[in-house]
Design a protein that fits this description.
The protein folds into 2 domains: about 20-105, DNA polymerase, domain 1; about 115-230, Cytidine Deaminase, domain 2 (3-Layer(aba) Sandwich). It contains 9 helices and 5 strands; from the N terminus they run H-H-H-H-H-H-H-E-E-H-E-H-E-E. It has helices at about 20-35, 40-50, 60-70, 70-75, 80, 90-110, 120-130, 170-175, 200-210; strands at about 140-145, 150-160, 180-190, 215-225, 230. Strand 4 (about 215-225) and strand 5 form a beta hairpin.
């Protein structure tokens, strides 16, 4: 879609486009109070200001929220789907994906050099930022050392909207390569509902059965989705 306006923007008494004053006011509010009190579409406007400097971006921001549901879901949407919105072209979609990548990098940074099990809120925040709004299933592994600090964070595989192939022996092999003594399993449910399926439960039990003789502990299996998360340990499934 074109990123240029379809026609001239309405101008105020000063001769400036009407959105100029709106941008100044929105930036001033953010400078004074941060993101508190900002609805998702206004926060998205702030991001779009730099991507689309010569157009009123409020309708675009509202259209994105209407299509995808929330600020986080906009950032998590695939670039080709973002470009279905009038006014969002390739460069705007790329800018949104850069913001998403920065968010994931920031939340992952909070886990480095800290015991994961004592930073569980950070683990959940990272998993949600990285996976909750993806359109396909992904299976992620957090490899931990004997102090439960994060050694590596790797995506083992991605699949379809409701299935990802998982290879338990490959998980154990990789853990041994990294000298990991524990792992946290993470995957997403694009449907939004994080409730574990019977297949999820069987797969987790198989990974535990193969890992245990090798001295590798499976601390938890977390499923994330738009509607929250589920912890196998919290549900007493492991």
């Amino acid at each position: 879609m074109s990123e240029k306006a379809g026609g001239a923007d309405a101008k105020g008494a000063s001769g400036e486009p009407h959105y100029r004053g709106h941008r100044d006011r929105l930036r001033a509010r953010f400078s004074e109070a941060g993101e508190r009190g900002f609805p998702d579409y206004e926060l998205l406007e702030l991001v779009l200001f730099r991507s689309i400097p010569q157009r009123d971006v409020k309708p675009i921001a509202k259209a994105l929220i209407a299509r995808f549901g929330s600020f986080a879901e906009v950032l998590g949407a695939a670039p080709e789907r973002l470009q279905e919105i009038d006014g969002v072209g390739e460069s705007v979609a790329l800018d949104l994906k850069i913001v998403e990548a920065a968010t994931v990098r920031m939340t992952r940074g909070a886990l480095r050099e800290r015991p994961v099990l004592s930073s569980w809120a950070d683990v959940l925040a990272y998993c949600r930022a990285a996976m909750a709004f993806a359109e396909r299933e992904e299976f992620r592994l957090l490899f931990l050392d004997k102090r439960n600090a994060l050694i590596a964070d790797e995506v083992q595989g991605s699949g379809t909207i409701d299935h990802t192939p998982v290879y338990p022996r490959e998980i154990v092999r990789r853990a041994l390569e990294l000298s990991a003594t524990a792992i946290v399993l993470v995957h997403n449910h694009p449907s939004g509902d994080p409730t574990p399926s019977s297949a999820d439960i069987r797969m987790t039990q198989e990974i535990i059965a193969i890992s245990k003789p090798m001295g590798i502990t499976v601390h938890d299996h977390i499923i994330v989705g738009r509607n929250g998360h589920a912890s196998f340990k919290g549900l007493k499934l492991i």
